[in-house]
Structures are given as C-alpha cells and as structure tokens.
Design brief:
heterodimer, A: 211 residues, alpha+beta, Aminopeptidase, 5 helices, B: 70 residues, mainly alpha, two-stranded antiparallel ribbon, extended
Chain lengths: 211, 70
C-alpha cells in the first residue's frame, strides 16, 4: 500500500514564513532511513553534550531511546496500527504511531468508549529546542495530533484521543492540544495519561483551522 | 483511509442483537464494530503465534485469568 499525502504548512522559524509540507498516512522505509541517518546522529550528539556537561537527567531528551524502525516493524500488517509522518524539503520532520483498536477512554464522561491511542509522536531533533538553539520548523506536533483526531473521527470515535506523555510534553498536550491531564498512570511508568474528549477535539480542530 | 470493498454478511437473530447492542453501547456503526472485531482478532492471533498468552486481570484483586483460545 502506498502512502497518501496531504499538503500541510510548517512555520520556518528562521524566516517566519509558512512552508509547504506533506502529511503522509504511512511511515515508509525512506522515513526510517532519515531517522537512522539524520535524526539519530543529532540525538547522539545531544546526549554526548549533556554527559560532558554533567547535565541532570531531567534535561535529557526523554525520547532518545525510541527505536522507530522497531516500532514500525512491529506494526507491519497489523490492522490495529497506523502511522503518519511529515515530510518537508525531502526530509522526515516528524513521525507518529497510533493504535486504533485496543484502548478505551478513561474520563468519566466518556468512559469505555473507543479512541485513537497515540503510541508515539516525535518531531525531528532539529525541530526541538532540547537539541538545537534555533529549531528549524514549528507545528509538527500539532499537525500530527490533528491527524490523530481526524483518524479518530474517520473511525467513528468522534475525535477521542488518548496518550501517555513524557514529562517534557505535558505543556504541549494540556495547553496546545487542550487535553485533560488525568495524572500519573502507575501501570505505565507513572507517565501522565492525557485524554481528549469529543468537545476538546472539536475545539482543537477549530483552533487549528483558524490558525 | 484506504479504499473500501462491500460485502454481504448473514447473521442469526442472536448475532444481530449482539451487534446492535454493541453498536448502541459503543456509539459506533455496526460496520465500525465489525472492523474493530476483525482488528482485535488479528492482533490476538498475531500475539498467540508469537507464543504469547492472553490474560484478563481483575483491576481490584489483580487476579489474572488466562483466556483459552483454540
């Protein structure tokens, strides 16, 4: 199956201009190659720098151990998995892996309903301030979350989305995406569980379309 | 999402009742319920083929019961 592309726009931080990018509904080999040859060396350089400067672990990029090749390999042929990525200027700028089957909502007002669960979402290291002083593009996380909400709506889940967030991403999911922080989950390394209701999804999509 | 194909499905009254009840409880169309069922079945099969087992755990007592699949 070949990925389908939709045009999206990223904010180029150096110029303040919007640049065209492709949102693809499947992570393919070339994206994993970018992860291997372009993302990982930059992440490794950041970790080396942090070790050299004795930086506390709280400053380390918390997704540095994620292995996208393994994650995508595990999802191959499995209908409950889905993946998305963003390409701009011929390079992978962000990736996301979803589970569209085996998770259920936890918030009291929608408990037990189906939702799209975001397994992993990551922007390329050159787009993140933990790695570079001046990130290249902005908007990757929001566009991928928008894709997760759209997928939830297409599945009939009305935009409900859930995820466990790394501490460095709490502000993004709570403030930018408007999700409810349900606190640490003792079953998932005490990561905070965030959930988006139908109303929050509508608000997030409305805000995205206005921006 | 990918292009879709249509099929006719013959169900007994009991099966249709169960499908309609799930559809109402989960606020999903009957097609969406069957799609979810297929995905879950495929996922469970893939894990079993890898030599894994399927358990249900009681949230309060933490008691585990293996679901026997043949």
């Amino acid at each position: 199956m070949t990925a389908t592309a939709s045009t999206v726009h990223l904010l180029e931080m150096a110029t303040g201009k919007l640049v065209e990018a492709d949102l693809l509904d499947q992570v393919e080999e070339r994206h994993l190659k970018d992860w291997d040859t372009q993302w990982r060396p930059l992440v490794a350089a950041t970790v080396r720098r942090l070790v050299t400067t004795n930086a506390p672990m709280s400053q380390w990029p918390q997704s540095f151990h994620w292995n996208w090749r393994q994650k995508i390999e595990d999802m191959k042929g499995i209908l409950s998995g889905a993946s998305f990525c963003i390409e701009c200027e011929g390079v992978t700028q962000g990736m996301m892996a979803l589970n569209v089957t085996s998770a259920r909502t936890r918030l009291a007002q929608q408990k037990g309903q189906h939702l799209v669960y975001v397994e992993y979402l990551e922007a390329a290291p050159w787009n993140r301030p933990e790695h570079v002083a001046q990130p290249r593009f902005r908007g990757i996380g929001s566009i991928l979350m928008y894709a997760a909400v759209a997928r939830s709506q297409a599945e009939g889940f009305k935009g409900r989305v859930g995820l466990h967030a790394l501490p460095q991403s709490h502000v993004f999911y709570a403030d930018k995406c408007g999700m409810t922080d349900m606190g640490p989950d003792p079953n998932v390394q005490k990561l905070h569980y965030f959930e988006m209701t139908v109303e929050q999804a509508e608000g997030f999509v409305d805000g995205k379309e206005r921006s | 999402m990918a292009a879709k194909k249509t099929m006719t499905l013959n169900l007994t009254d009991a099966e249709m009742d169960a499908l309609e009840r799930l559809s109402a409880d989960k606020d999903l169309t009957k097609t969406a319920i069957l799609r979810q069922a297929l995905r879950l079945y495929q996922l469970v099969e893939a894990r079993l083929v890898r030599g894994e087992k399927l358990y249900f755990e009681n949230d309060a007592t933490k008691e585990k019961a293996e679901l026997m699949l043949v």
